[in-house]
Design a protein that fits this description.
The complex is a heterodimer of chains A (about 325) and B (about 300). Chain A is about 75% helix and about 0% strand. By secondary structure, chain A is mainly alpha-helical. In chain A, helix 2 crosses helix 14. The termini of chain A are far apart. Chain B starts with about 25 loop residues before the first helix and ends in a 5-residue tail after the last helix. Chain B is an all-alpha fold. Classes of the chains: A mainly alpha (about 325), B mainly alpha (about 300). The interface between A and B is large, with 131 and 133 residues.
Chain lengths: ~325, ~300
């Protein structure tokens, strides 16, 4: 396809879309009399609702059904796919890794983001310092994975061979042997989790910093007059005041982490015992063409999200009730 | 699905403009030199990985393969060779994928924003039966992971012959963006004072005119905030791109090709480094130029569902 072909496609797409929206607005505008609200209201929401039904709702229900079918989605196999996920050793490792990701990453990102938000709060270089931590959020997970792959890079320890990965160089400087980190099961999982922490800490910091700034200053002043300062101020005043924001941040990161597959795919391709459910989903569905297994893994992702969301909604209700 | 109401505290644009209202007492108590040193150490730790790869992307192949980037001062060679090779050399130059990324991103940002703004207006300012039920249903769709929709959606695309074209990526991204976009834009549209709408109605304006002449101008900040969000998300996406556009160099965006490089040219760090930065540069520019809006979007909403 030439550049011109592509531009033409872009123009056609925009034109088609503009025409559809034009018709919709025309319909909404034509409605008169008692039915004005009904007709124009439906016209306004119809395109979005239609797209959601075709592109999300219907496919999701198909996936739920396919998860009970075999690899070619021809025969009904009941719970077989799910049973395999919980019993096959290599798939159990995938579940274990997902659990590691979803427990470690949100807690550490939030903790680092919180500590950092408190440390730079009201310092002179606050804006610049925050931008540095926040920056990884703009980088794709693929880019971030390459950045960290380079940090972990390993060269065998022989004459005349120097390390080019920073971590191994630091080990050598300290007098240790270099380590081929990517192969070091099960610790390599933690090294992959570091990448998502590196990205999400900025997100946590931004939201928590806003929450900290929203604490009324008279509360802080009063605590100060009572002689509360430093670490005690943080644990007795700051942390309780921003609890709802902390819950929101942990929830949001957990949900995001569950679905991440870019990091695993770019850094190890899921080898060396590092696969997670989202990566295994891609592998099974599109590489191994096992649609039943792929669908079951997708459903597991969905099922894992639900309790996190319910917990979050409950917490919000509690806060509202106060 | 989650909202913290911190928008009005003035904390949002803090990344850009330092807080102006500081009580002197609070300032004195919180800035101990140790805290500043700790903050500085964390900031350096956070930046070193990116800096190391960035420096390597300009070092000659020989240097990158033999010595660490921290030896640069002892051996200061810089070159643009890596970039010209990765952008224009080889059988699959990145320049083509760069064009694809732009092709994928523009409509995939524009379409969902227009669809979501109209839908948000419908939910916020018109009355029709089952309106609230429908809105809650869309709100709930935010928790459905993309993965759940991909296989059947691919089957639909294959069935309609759209497979392997930009249309699949545009449609998929637009659909997946809608629940969060409608929710966020609906919330900020509800904040527009009712009197404004009432006054326009008295003047005989219909819904379409109110939408176009009152809502759209007032919604600009919220739309901009969401647009930056959606832009970064689409540009940086790998999953949707792989599934719907991964197979062909005509359609595949940068992320797909760079991820492929990482898998196949695993040890060519000079090419990987420059390739990574080719894919990073546009989001970085957008991020620095519009971070005020990006942060506002974060604070108003949540993460991408």
């Amino acid at each position: 396809m030439t550049l011109l072909d592509k531009l033409l496609q872009l123009l056609v797409a925009v034109a088609v879309f503009a025409a559809v929206m034009g018709v919709v607005l025309l319909v909404a505008d034509r409605a008169r009399g008692r039915r004005t609200d009904l007709v124009s209201g439906l016209a306004f929401v119809a395109p979005a609702v239609l797209l959601l039904v075709i592109g999300l709702l219907y496919p999701a229900s198909r996936t739920a059904a396919q998860s009970f079918l075999d690899a070619s989605s021809a025969n009904f196999v009941g719970l077989d796919n799910y049973i395999r996920i919980f019993t096959q050793p290599d798939l159990v490792i995938v579940l274990r890794n997902t659990l590691l990701w979803v427990v470690i990453a949100p807690i550490l990102s939030t903790a680092i983001g919180l500590v950092y938000a408190v440390l730079v709060d009201r310092t002179r270089f606050e804006a610049f310092a925050k931008a540095l931590i926040f920056l990884p959020m703009a980088i794709s997970l693929v880019g971030a994975s390459i950045i960290w792959k380079f940090v972990y890079a390993y060269r065998p320890n022989q004459q005349n061979i120097q390390q080019i990965g920073l971590v191994n160089q630091v080990l050598v400087w300290l007098g240790f042997e270099p380590v081929n980190f990517i192969l070091a099961e099960p610790w390599n999982n933690l090294l992959l989790i570091v990448v998502i922490i590196w990205i999400q800490a900025g997100f946590a910091m931004t939201l928590l910093s806003a929450a900290i700034k929203a604490i009324p200053s008279d509360i802080i002043e009063a605590a100060r007059l009572d002689g509360v300062g430093g670490v005690r101020l943080f644990f007795y005043i700051t942390l309780p005041s921003i609890r709802p924001a902390v819950v929101v941040v942990i929830t949001a990161i957990s949900i995001a982490v569950l679905k991440v597959f870019d990091i695993v795919r770019t850094m190890t391709g899921g080898q060396f015992g590092t696969s997670v459910v989202a990566n295994e989903f891609y592998l099974q569905s599109f590489r191994l063409s096992d649609l039943g297994m792929g669908s079951a893994l997708a459903m597991i992702l969905f099922v894992l999200v639900v309790p996190i969301v319910i917990y979050n909604v409950r917490q919000m209700r509690k806060v509202d009730a106060r | 699905m989650t909202v913290i109401d911190t928008k009005d505290t003035g904390a949002g644009p803090d990344l850009v403009t330092a807080a102006t209202t500081r009580s002197a007492g609070a300032k004195k108590g919180l800035t101990s030199p140790w805290a500043s040193i700790a903050a500085l150490v964390i900031a350096v730790l956070w930046t070193i990985p990116t800096f190391g790869l960035f420096l390597s992307s300009f070092r000659p192949e020989r240097d990158v393969q033999r010595t660490g980037w921290w030896t640069f001062l002892a051996n200061p060679n810089l070159t643009l060779d890596n970039y010209s090779r990765v952008l224009f050399g080889g059988s699959q130059p990145l320049a083509g994928f760069f064009v694809n990324s732009i092709m994928v991103t523009l409509p995939a940002v524009l379409i969902p924003i227009i669809l979501a703004t109209t839908a948000a207006y419908g939910f916020a300012w018109t009355r029709f039966p089952l309106r609230d039920t429908l809105f809650v249903a869309i709100f709930a769709l935010q928790i459905v992971p993309l993965q759940v929709a991909l296989i059947p959606l691919l089957e639909i695309f294959v069935g309609t012959g759209l497979n392997g074209t930009f249309w699949t990526v545009w449609i998929a991204h637009s659909t997946f963006a809608l629940p969060l976009a409608i929710f966020l834009l609906h919330n900020s549209m509800r904040e527009i004072p009712e009197e404004l709408v009432e006054a326009a109605r008295v003047d005989g304006a219909g819904h379409v005119r109110i939408f176009l002449t009152i809502m759209l101008p007032l919604m600009k900040p919220a739309i901009a905030a969401y647009a930056v969000f959606q832009f970064l998300w689409v540009w940086n996406d790998l999953l949707v791109a792989l599934v719907f556009a991964g197979g062909t160099t005509d359609v595949a965006p940068l992320t797909v090709r760079v991820a492929e490089l990482a898998g196949t040219r695993d040890s060519d760090w000079h090419l990987l480094a420059s390739g990574a930065f080719v894919s990073i540069i546009i989001p970085l520019i957008v991020f620095f130029a519009l971070q005020r809006y990006f942060v506002r979007g974060l604070l108003a909403g949540s993460v991408k569902g």
